Amino acid sequence: MQTLSQGRIYDKIVPITDKMTMNNVILSYLYIFNTGNYQCSEIICYLAMKFHEISDVIMLLSAKFENIYSFNEETRILFTASKSDQLPLQVSRAEKRDDISVLRMGLIYGANASGKSNIIKCLAIIKEFALNGWSNLKYNYFKMTDEPQERSSIELEFKADNQFFAYGIALSKGGLLEEWLYKTGSRNDTMIFERKRNGDSWDNTIAPQFLKDEDGQFLKFLIDGTPTKGTFLSEYIKRNGKGIDTIKSARKWFENLNIIFPNTHRTDFPFRVVNDTQFRTVMRELLNYFGTGISDLRRVESKPEELGIPDEIRQKIEESLEGKGSETGVVIHNENRFIFAEKDKSKNLKWHELKTIHKKEDSNSDYIFEMFEESDGTSRLFDFIPMLIDMRANDAVYVIDEVDRSLHPMLTLKLLEMYNSLLKSDSQMQLICTTHESNLLSTAPIRQDEVWFVEKDKKGESHLSSLCEYKPRENVQKGYLNGRYGAIPFFGELNNIHWDDAK
Question: Where are the domains of the chain?
Answer without folding.
Answer: 1-36+300-373
